[in-house]
Amino acid sequence: MRVAFVCIALLFTAPAAIAQDTPPLASELPQPAMVYSEQSPAYRLFPGDEVEITIYSAPELSRNATIGPDGRLALPLIGAVRAADLTAEELHDILVSAYAAHLRMPELTVTPRSYGSRQVFVGGEVARPGIYDMPANMDAFQAVALAGGFLPSAHRRDVLILSRASGATTVSEIDLSMRAVRSGLPGAQALQRYDVVYVPRSRISQVNLFMQQYVRDALPVQFSFYYDLRGNRTN
């Protein structure tokens, strides 16, 4: 009789234990990394973006131009002009100033027409490591989902994000465990072009050593220096 009672108790308690390991519902997943509003920063142009430049005072100079790999636009009369990392409004002001030396009253508009690829590299313990185009702003958790999700061997608490958005390579660490997911991933930030999301197999005690032994050879780009968890830079 005692054995039967124990079996019945296990039948009622097992589902609760299983439920704790089940994936979160869609409503429990983190929302998109960036919420668009009037306060959202203006888009900054990038190599590969195409812009339409309309010069009303000299229509023959109007054209569509693509920003080259060096971040510059090749334009008549004024030559190469840096456009990368500028907003359309900032580029407009620069062109007005440059054309003022050749035109009496340069009136023009700058309109982005198409955008170069926005790629991120997802590597390590994910189902399909590789380079992925970002269809929209996304965080590291969403990038891992794009790469097929975590492997069972993934250590989700120590995911590395390598970024060169500011011109200097930075390494940050984010917790993508299920507990963090259910909390809305408070540390998540929108990824930038060519960011690297690397999911390790085991806990990372020092980023320097981990980068040197496991990450450097797996990346599509080479990094010449490393960072430790305290943010101390070494060459």
Can you describe this structure?
With 235 residues, the protein is an alpha+beta fold. The protein has two domains: 50-114, wza like fold (2-Layer Sandwich), CATH 3.30.1950; 117-234, Outer membrane lipoprotein wza fold like, CATH 3.10.560.10. Helices cover 23% and strands 23% of the residues. The protein has helices at 2-21, 88-99, 140-146, 178-182, 207-215, and strands spanning 50-55, 63-66, 72-75, 79-82, 108-114, 119-124, 130-133, 159-163, 170-174, 196-199, 226-227, 233-234. The strands form four sheets. Strands 7-6-10-8-9 form a five-stranded mixed sheet, with helices on one face. The chain is elongated. The chain starts with a helix and ends with a strand. Mean pLDDT is 77; it is low at 1-33 and 222-235.
